[in-house]
Amino acid sequence: MDLFYEKKQEALKIELKEIEYLKYTLNTLLYWDKLIYMPKGAIGYRSEIIQFLSKDIYNRFSSPKFLKLQEYFEKSPKKNEVIEATLKKIKNNSNFVQKIPLKEYEDYMNLITLSEDIWKKAKVENSFDEFSLCLEKIVAHFKNFTKYWGYKKTPYDALLRYYDIDINCDELDILIEDLKKFIIPLVKEIEKNSRDSIAKDFSGEYDFNKQMELSKYILSITGFDFTYGRVDLGEHPTTLAASPKDVRVVTSFDKNDLKVGIYNTFHEAGKGLYEQGISENLLGTLLAEVSSQVLEESQARFYENIVGRDKNISSLILKKIKELFPQLKDKEDIDFYRLVNEVKPSPIRIEADELTYILHIIIRYEIEKDLLEGRLDVKDLPELWNKKYKEYLGVVPKSFSEGVLQDIHWASGYFGFFPVYLIAELYSHQLKKTLEKECNISSENIDVENLKKINIWLRDNIYCHGALYSSKEILKRLTGENLSSKYYIEYLKSKYYKLYNIK
């Protein structure tokens, strides 16, 4: 009996490994090459390859052989923790991809393959009309997908489940209301009380090769292992893993603003560390990946803001900046600290300061919900976008490229993804409280030794488990609490009241 069970287990592992090979090839290597090296003219044939591999993965999950193995383990009383988590992962996949008719799934994958290049062209040419037809099709697909997946109250709830967000829209709206009530008035108070910038001027022209050296330095001090990873320059920052031993970071720079590259890189460092920290023993189980995009993004936000904007760490970064850019040799540590923590509302999400960033996410969530629920047509999107930016942030984008065309997410098929960033922010601060207590350190004034302790704690308590536990389970196990906005609001209040002398 044990021998028979072991044979079945080995057969399942073989099937899952082959699916993993395809997933890693499709979602990482082909996509990474498309972002970094693929010639523009290759997109047509590349889209055929992507469509073929997508269909192959779809078919493998629904093959008679695979379904029989799945049924055997579902009925077996001998399931262990890994098998249980693997079955849950398979079921989740079935609930989403397998519920979409194959022809529609193929059409959608083909659309997404082409839409990124349509978006890139539209952004360069500042032409929303060119991308809007594509976006209409993407929204239409997701409207259909939510019907296949099912929901009780709003179709957006189906999207939250799809992105592994363990709350519904009613709960999310309560959290958002708490954040808006605190952040919007605080932003206005800061603007009213600080007519002059608290930060000294760091403007200039910064060579991309030297900025890449700075990015490599940032990755190295956070603990990213270049033996099993690399960093490249692309249009939009992202991190892609072909296994825990093959992690590709993509960052992006601004020739006139060092902060853009620095914090894009800190952000992706958090993701890269998570990917590299996953146990290799989970390969062949579908669990050798992050628990959820929420938890991965929480680590990105942790390293970008809590670590990257810390007073000690910012001093360390400035020291390296002075080596690379001698024209900044007279800048003081306090100058750089104030610069990277300055509140300065911007129309660009990835250039947003730590305080106003969440408002960019809330705007996108509210717009996506309106699109999905039929209250907003794609053609009217830019007008509502600009209206919300004026209301929440007091700024209005000067162009489509600076406004509604700034993000790649919708073109990449990540419609409904933006709440991941919001929930991740709350996770990062809630987990921080437990980390500080258990490591007996403060996450303010972090030194290199603190950073090593932080990395070890995160690896041993979160990263190594891969997708064995859900993000909600990890939060509850480590903090003993459900998701809350209070820790994030406390952090913002403590930091920005002090920085801007608000009583």
Automatic annotation (TrEMBL):
PROSITE patterns in UniProt: PEPTIDASE_M32 (PS52034)
Highest taxon, organism lineage: Bacteria
Any one GO BP annotation for this protein: proteolysis
Gene3D superfamilies: 1.10.1370.30
Cofactor names: Zn(2+)
InterPro entries the record matches: Peptidase_M32_Taq
Chain sites annotated for binding Zn(2+): 267, 297
One family name in Pfam for this protein: Peptidase_M32
Keywords: Carboxypeptidase, Hydrolase, Metal-binding, Metalloprotease, Protease, Zinc
Reactions listed under catalytic activity: Release of a C-terminal amino acid with broad specificity, except for -Pro
PANTHER family: CARBOXYPEPTIDASE 1, METAL-DEPENDENT CARBOXYPEPTIDASE
Entry similarity comment: Belongs to the peptidase M32 family.
Function comment: Broad specificity carboxypetidase that releases amino acids sequentially from the C-terminus, including neutral, aromatic, polar and basic residues.
Name of this chain's protein: Metal-dependent carboxypeptidase
